[in-house]
Amino acid sequence: MRTIRILLVDDNASFLEAAARYLASDKKIEIVGRLSSSREAMDQLHSLRPDLIIMDLAMPTINGLEATRSIKALPNAPRVIILTLHDNPEYRSASQAVLADGFVAKSEFGAQLIPLIHSLFSTQEA
């Protein structure tokens, strides 16, 4: 069974810690990094080699949408799930426009994230 390598990107240290703890409960998931900015994520993308980036939408300097657009333009880009406190149709549409592979409101994190991760990688396991 191959593990799914995940990079967490959020400017809230408490959320990063909680998310890492929650995701680590799944034996198919390996957290390869926890970063506080999308710039750090783009800088460390090649060295960390994540299969998936879980990216907060609202961050200083480069927001999650702009970072996702840049990341998805790379060859062999990892999958990206956008997370946000603000679940609204405009953000969902914007995340689709930048080719994000998923969108999860932080209020639904516990219920939606792990099933979404497994659905994104289920075709690779078959």
Written description of the protein model:
It is globular and about 35 Å long. Helices cover 45% and strands 22% of the residues. Strand 3, helix 3 and strand 4 form a beta-alpha-beta unit. The model has no long low-confidence stretch (mean pLDDT 93). Helix 2 runs parallel beside helix 3. The chain starts with a strand and ends with a helix. A 5-stranded parallel β-sheet has the order 2-1-3-4-5, with helices on both faces. The protein has 126 residues and is α/β, with parallel strands linked by helices. It has a single domain, classed as Rossmann fold. The chain is built from 5 helices and 5 strands, in the order E-H-E-H-E-H-E-H-E-H.
Spell out the blueprint of helices and strands.
Elements: E1 4-9, H1 13-23, E2 29-35, H2 38-48, E3 52-56, H3 64-72, E4 79-84, H4 89-97, E5 102-105, H5 109-125
Parallel strand pairs: 1-2, 1-3, 3-4, 4-5
Helix pairs in contact: 2-3
Short descriptors:
5 strands, alpha/beta, 5 helices, Rossmann fold, 126 residues
For the record, give the distance between the C-alpha atoms at the N and C termini, rounded to a whole number.
Answer: 11 Å
Run of helices and strands? EHEHEHEHEH
Profile the largest sheet.
5 strands, parallel
Name of the CATH homologous superfamily: Response regulator
Across the major sheet, the strand order is 2-1-3-4-5
Structural class designation:
alpha/beta
Number of domains: 1
In percent, how much strand structure appears in the residues? 15-25%
CATH 2nd-level architecture? 3-Layer(aba) Sandwich
Label the overall shape: globular
- The total count of helices amounts to 5
CATH class: Alpha Beta
Give the averaged pLDDT, no decimals. Answer: 93
- The radius of gyration over CA amounts to 13 Å
